[in-house]
From TrEMBL, chain B:
Domain of life the protein comes from: Bacteria
Keywords: ATP-binding, Cell membrane, Membrane, Nucleotide-binding, Transport
A Pfam cross-reference name: oligo_HPY
Locations listed in the record: Cell membrane
Native source species: Propioniciclava soli
UniProt name for this protein: ABC transporter ATP-binding protein
Protein family per UniProt: Belongs to the ABC transporter superfamily.
Annotated membrane topology: Peripheral membrane protein
Residues in ABC transporter domain copies: 7-262
Gene3D superfamilies, alphabetized: P-loop containing nucleotide triphosphate hydrolases
NCBIfam families xrefs: oligo_HPY
Record-linked InterPro entries: AAA+_ATPase, ABC_Ni/Peptide_Import, ABC_transporter-like_ATP-bd, ABC_transporter-like_CS, Oligopep_ABC_C, P-loop_NTPase
GO molecular function: ATP binding
Main location: membrane
Amino acid sequence: MTRTTGSGPVLSADQLSIIFDGKDAAGHAVEVRACNKVSLDLHAGEIVALVGESGSGKTTLARAFARIFAPDEGEIRFHGERITGRPKRSFYRHVQLVYQDPFASLNSLKTIRHILGRTIRIHKPELTRSEVTAQILQLLEMVALTPAEDYIDRFPSSLSGGQRQRISIARALAVEPDVILADEPTSMLDVSIRLDVLNLLDAIRRERGVTILYITHDIASARYVSDRMCVMYSGELVESGPTEEVVSNPRHPYTQLLLASAPDPSRTKPAEPGDTPDVDEPADPSQAISGCRFNPRCPAVMDRCTAEKPPLFTVGEQQVKCWLYDGVEAPTRARSTDEEHRP
Amino acid sequence: MTRLLEVSDLDVVYLGLTDEGNVRACADINFTLERGEILGIAGESASGKSTLLTAVTRLQQAPAVTPKGSVRFYDAGDSEGVDLIAADEKALRRYRWSDISIVMQSAMACLNPVTRLEAQFADALRAHDRSLNRAQIRQRTADLLAMVGIAPQAMGKFAHELSGGMRQRALIALALACDPDLIVMDEPTTAVDVVMQRQILNQILRLQHELGFAVLFVTHDLSLLLEMADRIAIMYGGRIVEIGQARQIADDPQHPYTRGLRNAFPSLTEPRRERHGIPRSPPDLRKLPAGCAFEPRCDESVAACAAVRPELLDIGPCLAACHVRAAERGVAPLPTARPATEVIA
Ligand SMILES: Nc1ncnc2c1ncn2[C@@H]1O[C@H](COP(=O)(O)OP(=O)(O)OP(=O)(O)O)[C@@H](O)[C@H]1O
Ligand SMILES: Nc1ncnc2c1ncn2[C@@H]1O[C@H](COP(=O)(O)OP(=O)(O)OP(=O)(O)O)[C@@H](O)[C@H]1O
Ligand SMILES: [Mg+2]
Ligand SMILES: [Mg+2]
């Protein structure tokens, strides 16, 4: 898979917090920091995977990027420009969200021509009817619903889940966005058709240079499609770095736990059942935890972890929010020769 | 090994308002399960996995019927076995929850929302052994919860007060209450996170190792089964299309659908490479083709595949229902494209 590196970030979050009003276990009103001081840059043409357990704040971060939520702290920047107050309408066009459920997100009473045509016309009101049709056909081809003429007058109800998800992606593409925020776009789909949606995302970024944030629980699929991987835990970004580095050499104990837990088809049943330690449920963002939010579940917990919140440490190409890496500058892994000699 | 369960020629049909409305959600199902064995059943959505489990445990409800086949269950020391399909409700009750227990995907739907956990464990334990007194029941409940890593205090709680992972584990503990020979699990970890899923699976494996029960485990996630099952059956369009050792399914799958499915799971450790899904969508069970249900999506199919349905045959490494594979291995010749009945002498 190609790696494109752009200049400045297209979209970035800087020390972003999104705070909801919530209740703790005892029913008292508390602040829920669904995102807590998250900084993340998305560069042109890159696919960034955002992984983490349920409730870790992935959707909230995506919605903050799409400015569905205004930041409670920190800021969102688009091409380096700080977005203050209500963003311009054009912002929403440049940053598109694709949702998890292709069944709920499309109006099943309208044809594909209507669904895509409407979006195109809002974006480019000057287009004639036949120009709009031409664009719809082009979009359908882009998402591999071919022959496009066969699909244009169909209703979403007559399509399979994978095909509907392609229509959602085509609709997001209709406005020629810079960024697509794909929130678990494959989790409702059958396994045999998930890869095609991932391959489509990859094609979109290669052919159109679109930046993609791919949110998922499925770490193997995140590894398959992404250039960089970010791991969220309880509202915080705890590790990020080049995907292969994070997967082959996870630094944060939470990332290590996540990777060790993920099913891997290259493993088979052990002769003796494994003796992995039982850890508790993930920390809910409404829970008050002093120090590192992972400390109650962490196998490597130290005194310091319960007292002080760790900052982000840089370890090689990875950034890790963990005290284990205080003062440890791990050597960067040797580059392969062919990469070294590249101009 | 001794046999525990033998499913023969089983069909399950959801009756429609008319004959055309009937859905044969399971057809010609044949498999066996040995004592202490973990058999995984994998397949896409609507391939008939849950239907099969409910039929095997006789929990199916109208409009589901089992027009054909048998499910023979061999109780300890019983060489004849009993056919659960033919058994009456009274006989069934004896097996359910005492020899066979069930863990379903939605723990919330299985646990009673208006009684405390303790009361539900008491019901299950008493069904098995009426002589237990209150203190013994409490002790046994605490032991069972401890087996799945839940503190005894939780027995005073209602299901909705537990987290998703705890509920699922409580359900597994409940399934263990009567020391069953067989636990049937339908996607027991789909609703929980990967970390919790791993813990639950490890617990199942550990308990299975200690207590020796057999498991029938259904999921759409083949990669999970590869890691925990002894043998795996692959379902497609209501039929078993391949059944073999987990190792073989992982390393040397035979049916083109199994190969496609196997390849659809990217690995965390193998080198990254481009992969492709299986083109087109799963079949509609109401409109199954005359031949192999996978034929419209298969890149290896020949003319015979659309016309004649392949039988599940022993092709060497495993059992598989595929004309091309059977011919390749010299097990059966490719049938002529037209169904045998139409062949003119
Ligand atoms: N509108 C809201 N009001 C109050 N709390 C919210 C709201 N939206 C999300 N939360 C809380 O914020 C936290 C993060 O939720 P979010 O949906 O972002 O998680 P997620 O990582 O996307 O989880 P999942 O993998 O289950 O989709 C959760 O604890 C959730 O309950
Ligand atoms: N009560 C019912 N009445 C009619 N048809 C049904 C009924 N329940 C299930 N079916 C049909 O039977 C087929 C098999 O369903 P089943 O639930 O067994 O699939 P599954 O493999 O468990 O799928 P999933 O992975 O989605 O749980 C489907 O086509 C389904 O629509
Ligand atoms: Mg989410
Ligand atoms: Mg099911």
